[in-house]
Design goal:
The protein is α/β, with parallel strands linked by helices. The chain has 14 helices and 13 strands.
Length: 330
């Protein structure tokens, strides 16, 4: 065993290493076996440990809660995750990218497009265009950069490769190449859906894919089907909350856009105005950065209403959907 002064010297060397060179084994108390367990569970970087909860690390690696807290604190110190000035945050915001559709009105409504590092929720009745926007975004992200990858978690069997081919042709892209740059997974229940979301990190860190978009269509379908009645509401909301937290973390850590579609229901107690309400309650509403309500307009048009945003005013935009995807009303 190393003497006390050797341990102190090793700690000093570790603490003065540049944060970009630090690995999991540089965290005090983490050996090769623990680091391997953490990596296998998706905690492969210092940042992933820094944003984890003690319970998650305990479950992933089998360490004590006290050690898990020390690991998190060490990682946070090294990642400099304390307070920062508004000017520093503004500089970080320069990394945010916007994914643009073919509809200028839609892009303007969102301040230039769908933001990375954010969750955009789109809710509306069937046929309002939620899935069509998802398909269009999968192609639009490749127009930004041919190397960008879109991930599509399909919970209702709504993804159609034929639509991607049509939209890609309209955008002047190779349809076959466009399909190759979309990774699709069918989720068969809520647990499977949550697991797939967690596996997105592996595609980025282990396979080196340049993921710029994550689509979940639809977010609440399985939760709504599996948790029936008021007695299961608390459990459903807890799971939804965890799922949204995972999506938010992925968006922030890897500078990608998350687009989720949501089902709606009609409130029987609303006698005047639109009774449509999104599923998921306050959990989904608070976790989403931008919220869009879609409804059918006149003569085959659709209307997107921005109902919540941290920096944009409420507004509406009309658009249509044709073979080439989402476009402006002529």
């Amino acid at each position: 065993m190393p003497r006390k002064n050797e341990i102190e010297e090793e700690t000093i060397v570790t603490n003065t290493m540049p944060k970009e060179q630090l690995t999991l084994e540089d965290i005090p108390g983490v050996g090769a076996a623990t680091a391997e367990k953490l990596s296998a569970a998706g905690y492969s970087t210092l940042l992933s440990v820094a944003v984890a909860s003690p319970g998650e690390l305990v479950e992933a690696s089998g360490v004590t809660e006290a050690l898990a807290r020390k690991m998190i604190q060490f990682a946070r110190d090294k990642m400099e995750m304390g307070f920062e000035t508004g000017e520093e945050l503004l500089k970080k915001r320069e990394l945010v990218e916007k994914i643009q559709l073919r509809s200028k009105a839609f892009n303007d409504l969102l301040g230039g497009g769908f933001e990375t590092q954010s969750i955009t929720e789109c809710f509306g009745e069937f046929g309002s265009g939620k899935t069509q926007i998802g398909h269009s975004l999968c192609v639009a992200v490749q127009k930004m950069n041919p190397e960008f990858i879109a991930i599509y978690i399909d919970t209702e069997n709504t993804f159609r490769p034929e639509r991607i081919q049509q939209i890609a042709k309209a955008e002047g892209l190779d349809p076959t190449q466009a399909l190759r740059h979309i990774k699709i997974a069918r989720a068969f229940n809520s647990d499977h859906q949550m697991l797939l979301a967690e596996k997105v990190e592996d595609l980025i860190t282990k396979q080196g894919l340049q993921v710029k978009l994550l689509v979940v269509d639809s977010l609440t379908a399985h939760f709504r089907a599996e948790f029936i009645g008021r007695g299961t509401l608390a459990e459903r909301q807890q799971k939804l909350n965890k799922h949204m937290h995972t999506l938010s973390k992925i968006a922030m850590m890897y500078n990608l856009a998350v687009y989720v579609t949501n089902q709606v229901m009609a409130r029987p107690d609303v006698f005047f105005g639109d009774p449509t309400q999104a599923i998921g309650g306050h959990i989904v509403a608070h976790a989403s950065t931008f919220r869009l309500y879609l409804r059918k307009g006149k003569k085959g048009t659709r209307v997107a209403k921005l109902v919540d945003s941290p920096n944009l005013a409420e507004g509406e935009a009309s658009f249509t959907v044709d073979e080439g995807g989402v476009k402006d009303v002529i």
